[in-house]
Amino acid sequence: MRQDTHTLSDTSPRHGTRKADRPLFGGFIADETTAGLVRTAVAEKGWDTTALKSGTIAAAVRGLAAGARPRFLMVDLTGSQDPRNDVQALADVCDQETVVVALGTVNDVGLYRDLNASGVHDYLVKPVTQQQLHWVLDDVDAVLSVACGDTDSAASPDRPASNTGFIGVRGGIGTSTLVANMGWALAMRGVDTALVDFDLVFGTLALQFDLEPGRGLLDALENPHRIDGLFLERAMVKPHNRLSILGTEAAPGMPQNDTPHRTTDGAQQDVEAHLIDRLGERYGAVLADIPREAAIRRPDLLARMTDIVLVADFSVAAARDCIRLKAFLKTAAPDVNTHLMISMAGCMAGDVSRRDFETSVELPVSAVIPYDPKGFQIAVQKDKPVVEAAPRSKASRAILAWTESSFGLTRQSKASALRWLRPDALQKVRKRDPRQRAQPLSQDRDDNGPMAGPARQQAGGTA
């Protein structure tokens, strides 16, 4: 895995401009109220606020024709008589890889879908809130990170098998949801993946796929000498031929096996660590959902991971617990890469700002997954993981972007995703039957909408 970076060195296919020479952000907003909110959100990301200008999309077309073309552009469609043609005019002066977010006053699902079909990353209806802007900028940041082409060795497709542990610093923030969706995303991209649920009593990884976990993990922990390929094949449940889940439903209060396992060379190690070693021999990626108590009790398990992801929200309590767990990991697993992921962002009022959170924890946020109940509702209706049921929802895009960049994968539609204007799609939009009636944006959409977790989870996320 790697930390987010924005260093680019390749060449734009449209204009031949080196990405490293292009500004990160540019914007044209018509009214000062919205501009003030955008300026605040941009400043909190550490981006150049002087790149935000006054004007509508027409001013953006004039400005970009004569100046530098940013990698991320915000434009204002307020007052536009023909937004679709104005977007086409903008495409003529933009690089194909530019990520575009549009704002406007028209609340119409037909316009939203037309802009989205043409490749515009997102469309926000005024008046916008500070939280909406934070979500959008975090989403764009994740997309730009995937587009970076980082050559870090940890993101190389030829890297060895990855053992990644996820520790929810607080309950109820969707850690199991994230693990399940990332496992599904890896499996859909051809990676043989194992999910391990170390919550022996109340684990939900198997339930995320409407499966019973059986006794597989409990049997493995009680009989570590039996763990081999045949044992694992029988002990794990499989929602997909490339995705296997090892879990259990132990009775509350059942004593756990604390007897160390003795390896062939006479050394002793925790049974859980021995299990991770065996899984790592069979699977390209092992994702472990580790409760806080298990993490503290089993330092050998943490040391067997290549990466640990602390899953938190932007609360004061989460910041405190991140600091404590980070300090513990430095002692228990000093060689493990530690990452910080924010889940269900925007769910609770009074959240700490991202900048203040990172400063207090002294760890950069690798990804922000927005609270997204509409996407979850779609997943429930389709009875699928949300990255499969609603892949275009904002939280799905954030999960997929982080998974792909962290594990060195390439999204199948990455080339088209980076080209925000697709002429063939625009032509289809123009040929659409004008008699079709648009519906208000407030209605649920099957092809888009926020999301928080896979199909079997309660809306709002659980641990």
TrEMBL record:
The keyword Cell membrane does not apply. Coiled coil: none annotated. One of its GO terms (molecular function) is ATP hydrolysis activity. SUPFAM superfamilies: CheY-like (SSF52172), P-loop containing nucleoside triphosphate hydrolases (SSF52540). GO terms for biological process: negative regulation of cell division. Residues 1-23, 426-463 are annotated as: Disordered. GO terms for cellular component: cytoplasmic side of plasma membrane; cytosol. InterPro entries: Cellulose_synthase_operon_BcsQ, CheY-like_superfamily, P-loop_NTPase, ParA/MinD_ATPase. Keywords: ATP-binding, Nucleotide-binding. PANTHER family: SEPTUM SITE-DETERMINING PROTEIN MIND HOMOLOG, CHLOROPLASTIC (PTHR43384:SF6), SEPTUM SITE-DETERMINING PROTEIN MIND HOMOLOG, CHLOROPLASTIC-RELATED (PTHR43384). This is Pilus assembly protein CpaE. It comes from Eilatimonas milleporae.
